[in-house]
Write a structure and sequence with these properties.
heterodimer, A: five-stranded antiparallel β-sheet, 5 strands, B: 148 residues, alpha+beta, Thiol Ester Dehydrase, Chain A, 4 helices
Chain lengths: 140, 148
């Protein structure tokens, strides 16, 4: 599945719920798979009593990975030229996240059709946790 | 626990499958080699942020990096991450992380007081020396716990 340049317009959006009621188990699963054992993501006692946060929180890269799932469902696999984000808020267990892509420009470069995409991922209260951008190759 | 870092970063089918599960991605091209081959691909494709799952497979693991940069683990947050893709990465390839520069700066943050910012640049080359991906990782060290 890939987007066609002739089928999309600037301003088109695509959104997906990328996690519902994020579990501590999934955060631990991501820690194990990624090898990122920073205790802020898995050790409640360290995180609350030593670092002083309200609870453990998700790896930014877990939120970026889940947001990337929305992106590849939208533009297709192997289509991304770039994907960058800023982590604007922490994501705590129980979060329900929705990722949204908005087409900001459609252009041609070196014979390729490309779309520039703005990305925003928000939690169930509307608080933005990821702000980013991507560009992807389109079919002609 | 041990944190041994052998050279090379093998992209492995089982690891790609586990990674896709951890981000909740059900796409068959991440999990099923037969489906990937039927789609004309050499093997399963790595999801876009997959190399971060092996960032600690490189020459420097996270505890060492925090120590080298003199960071306080309690107050380090991941500020941002950017990937530039030359092409998709498939299971069976062996990548090497080529560390680039580390750029340090400071900024007055709205929520976390004075922040130290570290931008780390890494290129990923494959077994043929071809750069397949460039990555910029931004770490922040806040003055204290960031309040919502």
């Amino acid at each position: 599945m890939a987007l066609k340049a002739s089928n999309i317009n600037v301003g088109d959006t695509y959104a997906e719920e990328i996690c519902r009621n994020l579990s501590r188990t999934q955060i631990v699963q991501y820690a194990g798979v990624s090898g990122d054992y920073n205790p802020l993501h898995s050790d409640e006692i360290y995180t609350t009593e030593i670092a002083g946060y309200p609870s453990i929180f998700a790896h930014g890269m877990l939120s970026m990975g889940m947001t990337g799932k929305m992106l590849t469902n939208f533009v297709g696999d192997g289509r991304l030229k770039s994907y960058g984000v800023r982590f604007t808020s922490q994501v705590f267990p129980g979060a329900t996240l929705t990722a949204t892509a908005t087409i900001t420009s459609i252009r041609q470069e070196a014979g390729e059709h490309l779309a520039d995409i703005e990305i925003s991922t928000t939690d169930e209260t509307g608080n933005e946790v990821i702000k980013g951008q991507a560009s992807a190759i389109l079919d002609a | 626990m041990a944190f041994i870092n052998p050279p090379g970063l093998p992209i492995e089918r089982g690891k790609v499958h586990e990674f896709a599960n951890s981000i909740g991605a059900e796409e068959p091209l991440y999990h099923d080699e037969e489906a990937a081959k039927a789609a004309g691909l050499p093997s399963v494709v790595a999801p876009p942020t997959y190399t971060s799952a092996q960032a600690f497979f490189g020459e420097k693991n996270a505890p060492n990096m925090f120590k080298d940069l003199d960071l306080d683990l309690r107050f380090v947050l991941h500020g941002g991450q950017e990937f530039i893709y030359e092409r998709p990465v498939f299971a069976g390839e062996v990548l090497t992380a080529v560390p680039g520069e580390v750029v340090a700066s400071t900024k007055e943050g709205k929520r976390g007081g004075s922040m130290k910012i570290f931008d780390t640049f890494t290129d990923y080359k494959n077994q043929d020396g071809e750069v397949v991906m460039r990555v910029k990782n931004t770490l922040l060290q806040t003055a204290g716990v960031v309040k919502e």
